[in-house]
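Hi there, hope your week has been kind to you so far. It would help a lot if you went through both lines with me. No rush at all, and the record is pasted right below:

***
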Amino acid sequence: MICENLSVNSCGHLTFAGLDCVELAAKYGTPLYVMDENRIRHNCRVYMNAMKKYFGENSACLYASKACSFKRLYEIIKEEGFGTDVVSSGEVYTALKADFDLGNAFFHSNNKTDEDIAFAIDSGIGYFVCDNIEEVYSISAIAGEKGVKQKVLLRLTPGIDPHTYEAVNTGKVDSKFGSAIETGQAFEITKTTLGLPNIDLRGFHCHIGSQIFDSEIYIRGSEIMLEFIAHVRQNLGYTAEILDLGGGYGVRYIEANPYIDIDSNIKGLADFIKRTVAQLAIPMPRICLEPGRSIVADAGLTLYTAGTVKRIPGYKNYVSIDGGMADNPRYALYGSYYTVMSALRPEAQCDMHCTLAGRCCESGDLIQENIFLPSDIKRGEIIAVLTTGAYNYSMSSNYNRLGKPAVVMIADGKDYVAVKRETLDDIIRNDV
């Protein structure tokens, strides 16, 4: 099994966090998101312990809540001592409703509206991570109107291509995010920001990309950022207090993906940063990381019920399910891969080469191609798609007027509903 929280019970059924997936599907219906609270907490503690051990008590872990955002999840990460990064007023509001301390929140996004900025300031946001100079001017103006001196970081692009999916590559010079160091724009936005009256510049942020398995990418990024910090200190007399290196560590979606030892990776990164800071003769900044996917991805799976099994001799086989791109658009968006199995008989011989297809009226509504399932799979069989805790619920939609699935959480062997299944009335609630 690709995840430690998966097993097979005496009935031969797939279990997740100790509970029978077939029984969960019968109890709650499908499609169904299932999340392992204990695994989320474990992943948080791995990061938190490593950050404190290698970067000191002043370091910080911020949960990248775009990976998965609902009230109960904010409560869990708050209890684990995490801060959070948010990217919209909706995420700010959800965190507020979970009684999350927004003083520990960093507000990202390449295009915050004036309404977003005003709402976040009124809500007590800790930091804005500013993407461009227009945004800095807006924050300064709105903060001035409210009598606030607002803390900000500047998002910079270090010019690194991590060779991940193009859709999740954010560190290159021509990215839509941030100000490029290479072009001189990062220095200019820093100089301008330091001169604004209602802005308290606390440091810099970068995010290179996502699903990264190679620590060298982080080391290269941190080197460029630290050299920039030294350059700014020498030329502008400003010393950055915070260096936020973003997130992006990969997770195992399939057997071919390597296992990442987070502790040893953070140790290696800390060793390099400490050496580089000493060589550059600059004060050690407060280091922040923003894990999202690697906190929740392997803490989730999705259960579906098989419907039509279509065999086209000499061409292709399709197994259709009662969900699809409305609850998981990642394959349709950028060809992301998953492990798929029968939850009813995960150890059965898988001898049919097929495509797992969704129910939406869209030819691109596929969950996974080139997989193998039992050739005698039938309508009504429960199918599990593994490692779906990140970017599934958070990217779900009502396409084809489908209701969003429930989110069921498992903690210490007990299951409970964290997000209710949408009803037909929920779908038309805002229609007039």
Remarks:
- Residues 309 and 319 are 5 Å apart (CA to CA).
